[in-house]
Design a protein that fits this description.
436 residues, Aspartate Aminotransferase, domain 1, five-stranded mixed sheet, alpha/beta, 2 domains, Aspartate Aminotransferase, domain 2
C-alpha cells in the first residue's frame, strides 16, 4: 500500500493506480441454479431418520435413551425381529435369480400370489384384479399417485398421515389435501370425508383417496365396520358423478386386530364397479424384510377393458421409474406365500411377534389411560399417537429426558414396535410431563 491506496496491478500496460488483483477479476453473474425451481430448497434428511440417528448416537455414547422413532419391530433385546423362515427362504434363492432381470411388471407367479393373498377372504374377485411389482409399499403408492391424478391435483387422506405421502406427492408434482380424521377417539369423521370429497370433485373432477388401515400409521387406529360402512356409502355416492379411486395402504395389516383386514376388504369389494380399488401391498413388515423392497400395487377393476388399460399404464410406469424390481426378493416371497409348509411356518412365527407387540399395546393402554393421555382407539400395530397442542415443544422436552418420539401436526407418534413392554411406563410418564 502506498499513500493509503492498494498496490497497482503490475505487468500490465496502463495499470491504473488503486486497482487490485481482485478488482481486475471478471465479476460473477447472479447465482444460477442447475436445479429446476421445483427442486430447490428440499431437505435431504428425512426427519424421522434424523431423529433416529440422533437417538442412536446418544445410545452409542452410553446414555440411557429410549428410541421410539422408526417403524421396525424390535425384540426385547433391541434387535430387529426377523422371521426365521422368511430369512431362510431369502437365503435359499439361487444366484441366477438374484442376478437376472425380472419382467418389467414383475414375475407372474409373484403377482398371482399377491392377488391371492389380498383376496384370500373373497377369492371370487381375484379374476377381476391385476398387479404390478413395486419396490415396497412406497413404490405402489407412487404409482397410484402418479397414474390416477393429473399434475397439480391433490390426493385426499386423513389429517394424521404418514409423512412420505407428502414427499411422494411433491416428487410427482401432486399435492396433499386432508380431512379431519376423528369425530371421536372411536370413530372416523365421515362428515369431514364427505365434504372433502365434494371439494376435490369440484376443484379437480376426480378423487384419489388414500386410507391407511388397519393399524393406521401414525395413529394406530383400525377402522370399525361402522367406519367402513360410512366410507362405502360416501364413496359410492360421489363416484356416481366423478372418477373416484380408493387406495388401501395396508402395510401393517398383519399386526392388526382379528378380522380387521377382512372387514376392510369386504367393504372395498362393495365398491367394485363404482370406484376403482387399489391395494398397496408390501412384504416389508409382514415378512420382516424391510430392506428387500418387495411390494405390489393391486387394482380391482371388474371391467376387462379398463383392467387391461390400467395394467398397461402401470407397467409403462414401472419402466419409466425403476424399470424392474428385485427378482430374488420376489422369488423368496412367492415361496412364502404359496408353499404350504413355508406359509404355515412363517404364519406361526409371525404369531409370536403379534403376541410380543400385543403385550406392548396392552401395557401402553393401561399406563396411558391411567396417566390421562388423549389418543385414538389402539388395538394393534406398530404405532400410536398421543394428541398434543404443541407437538414440537413436547417432543423436545422428551428428548431432554432421553425419550425420542416423532412430532407430527397435533400429536406425538410413539413407536411401540421399538420399545420393550418394560420401557413403556417410562415413555408414557415422560410424555405426560412433556405435555403438562
Amino acid at each position: 500500500m502506498r499513500g493509503g491506496h492498494p498496490a497497482p496491478i503490475p505487468g500490465r500496460r496502463g495499470a491504473v493506480p488503486g486497482r487490485t488483483y481482485r478488482d481486475a477479476m471478471p465479476k460473477p453473474k447472479a447465482m444460477r441454479h442447475h436445479l429446476v425451481d421445483s427442486r430447490l430448497g428440499r431437505s435431504g434428511d428425512d426427519p424421522i431418520f434424523a431423529l433416529n440417528h440422533e437417538a442412536n448416537a446418544r445410545l452409542a455414547a452410553g446414555e440411557d435413551v429410549l428410541n421410539a422413532t422408526l417403524g421396525a419391530l424390535l425384540d426385547d433385546d433391541g434387535r430387529l425381529a426377523i422371521l426365521p423362515t422368511a430369512a431362510r427362504a431369502v437365503s435359499e434363492v439361487g444366484p441366477q435369480d438374484w442376478a437376472a432381470y425380472a419382467p418389467i411388471g414383475g414375475l407372474a407367479p409373484f403377482l398371482q400370489a399377491v392377488i391371492a393373498d389380498v383376496f384370500v377372504d373373497i377369492p371370487e374377485l381375484a379374476d377381476q384384479a391385476i398387479a404390478v411389482a413395486s419396490p415396497g409399499g412406497s413404490g405402489a403408492l407412487r404409482h397410484a399417485i402418479a397414474t390416477f391424478l393429473e399434475p397439480g391435483q391433490a390426493l385426499l387422506t386423513t389429517d394424521f398421515f404418514w409423512g412420505p405421502y407428502q414427499t411422494l406427492a411433491d416428487e410427482n408434482e401432486r399435492r396433499v389435501r386432508t380431512f379431519t380424521m376423528f369425530a371421536s377417539k372411536d370413530s372416523l369423521d365421515l362428515a369431514a370425508l364427505d365434504a372433502a370429497m365434494q371439494t376435490s370433485i369440484a376443484e379437480q373432477g376426480r378423487v384419489l383417496l388414500i386410507l391407511n388401515d388397519p393399524c393406521h400409521n401414525p395413529s394406530g387406529y383400525s377402522m370399525s365396520s361402522a367406519d367402513w360402512d360410512g366410507v362405502v356409502e360416501i364413496v359410492t355416492r360421489h363416484a356416481s358423478s366423478a372418477p373416484v379411486t380408493v387406495v388401501l395402504d395396508n402395510a401393517y395389516a398383519a399386526y392388526g386386530p382379528p378380522d380387521a383386514m377382512a372387514t376392510a376388504m369386504r367393504s372395498l369389494a362393495a365398491l367394485a364397479g363404482h370406484a376403482l380399488v387399489l391395494i398397496a401391498w408390501s412384504a416389508s413388515k409382514s415378512f420382516t424384510h424391510y430392506g428387500l423392497r418387495v411390494g405390489a400395487l393391486v387394482a380391482l377393476a371388474p371391467d376387462a377393458d379398463e383392467r387391461a388399460a390400467i395394467e398397461a399404464a402401470l407397467t409403462y410406469a414401472c419402466r419409466g421409474t425403476w424399470s424392474n424390481c428385485n427378482r430374488g426378493g420376489m422369488v423368496a416371497v412367492t415361496r412364502l406365500l404359496t408353499d404350504p409348509e413355508l406359509r404355515k411356518a412363517v404364519d406361526s412365527e409371525r404369531e409370536e411377534l403379534i403376541r410380543l407387540l400385543g403385550d406392548r399395546v396392552d401395557v401402553f393402554n393401561d399406563v396411558a389411560g391411567a396417566a390421562g393421555l388423549a389418543y385414538p382407539r389402539y388395538a394393534g400395530g406398530f404405532f400410536t399417537t398421543v394428541f398434543a397442542e404443541d407437538a414440537a415443544r413436547s417432543a423436545r422436552r422428551m428428548r431432554d429426558e432421553g425419550v425420542y418420539v416423532v412430532p407430527i401436526r397435533g400429536a406425538l407418534r410413539l413407536g411401540i414396535c421399538a420399545l420393550r413392554a418394560a420401557d413403556i411406563p417410562r415413555a408414557v410418564e415422560t410424555m405426560a410431563r412433556a405435555l403438562g
